[in-house]
Amino acid sequence: MPVEITWWGHATCTVEDSGVRVLTDPLFARRLAHLRRRRGAVPPPEAAVAELVLVSHLHSDHLHLPSLARLAPGTRLVVPHGAVRAVPGLRKLGLRLTEVRAGDLVDAGDLRVRAVSARHDGRRLPFGPHRAPALGYVIEGRARTYFAGDTGLFDEMAEEVGPVDVALLPVGGWGPHLGPGHLDAGRAAQALARLGARAAVPVHYGTYWPIGLDGVRPHEFHAPGDDFVRHAARLAPGVTVHRLAHGESVRPEVAR
């Protein structure tokens, strides 16, 4: 079976490759603090079915304990080094916890997952001084799929990530402004051009929006996916971009 990618919204994706289901940054909430899910239904129970779950960093819209509690007991959860100390609630979930740094490898069936660097504030905000790195992951099976998590553009990105077939890139946020350590649609297209992937899926946009800001620059919520398609056509014209709806799946063509 070819690799299949499902986007559930925000940074939550299922990557199925070589018979293994990998879930990224699960966020299954209708509301998170001041954020409300504005587009797409809350993912169904089958979205929480995975053999391996990857968390890119400790921000609560990426490491969300109530969403992780929906995983089956014993599911293997990969988190950045220091996460368990910073978020003690992880120990209470009944999951198999693996902490990793950039460069570490994790095997799951016929898949190998490699942790790579990200340029993003990885702290568990606003609580405590404990730090953990923000990470991306390269899922290597029949395809090489790069899940960037949250990151800014950095010079070593292509060298560290290496050749990939599919790039899952964040292209927006959950407010009118993106601070340092993020990719907007234009910078994500620059990253795509450097990575040389065959296919891309834009994520991390068009799902959550602050309550009360519905009428403030609403294009910032709706536009990043289309903007990424437009910028990618100019900067990486050989790449096929799949702009998915919430809950939609795609089987990108890969070289192998």
Automatic annotation (TrEMBL):
It comes from Streptomyces melanogenes. InterPro entries: Metallo-B-lactamas, RibonucZ/Hydroxyglut_hydro. Residues 21-205 form the Metallo-beta-lactamase domain. This is MBL fold metallo-hydrolase. It holds the Pfam family Lactamase_B_2.
